[in-house]
Amino acid sequence: MGYRCPECKKVFDDFKDLRIHYRKSHMDGRCSICGPDGKKFSNIIRHYHMKTDDFPHLVVLCIIEGYDFIEDKKYRKIVRSLVETVLEERNAMLFEIIFNKGDRGR
Fold first, then answer.
1. Which residues contact 23 (CB under 8 A, 6 or more apart)?
2. Where do the C2H2-type domain residues begin and end (predicted)?
3. I want to staple 47 with a disulfide (CB 3.0 to 4.6 A). Which of 41, 63, 70, 95 is the partner?
4. Rounded to 5 degrees, what are φ and ψ at 51?
5. Would you say residue 101 has pLDDT above 60?
6. At 35, is the pLDDT very low, low, confident or very high (cuts 50, 70, 90)?
7. Where are the domains of the chain?
8. What is the pTM for the complete model shown?
């Protein structure tokens, strides 16, 4: 089972490898979820924290930071399960529904 990158769709054997890849390859201060041009933010992590009510933003934040920012342990476990399920390679259709950049209404 692998985990798919929401940016480039590459698949990684484990979540840790996906996190390393995302930080190295896609942390340029732009938020691709907010639009194809990806507004550049001086603090992209803060942007993701402010948008955790939007699931794609929450997923990317969990890729970048892990799950420790979620204080409630039960909620953290639920979020972890949901995020990793969405990113699993075998769930390509669910991934496309959530990260379909063309239908986000920007």
1. 64
2. 3-31
3. 41
4. -110, 25
5. no
6. low
7. 3-100
8. 0.83
Cα–Cα distances (Å) from 32 to 5, 28, 38, 74, in that order, read 13, 10, 5, 29
Question: In whole angstroms, what is the distance from residue 46 CA to residue 22 CA?
Answer: 17
With tokens 């990158």, the residue in question is 5
Of all residues in the chain, the percent with pLDDT exceeding 90 is 58
Output the average pLDDT for the chain.
87
Residues 6+ positions from 85 with CB-CB distance below 8 Å:
91, 94
Residue 69 tokens, joined: 């920012």
pLDDT value, residue 30: 84
CA 45 to the chain's CA centroid: 12
Q: State the burial class of residue 76 (Cβ atoms within 10 Å of its Cβ: 0-12, 13-18, 19+).
A: middle
**Which tokens is 41 given?**
């933010």
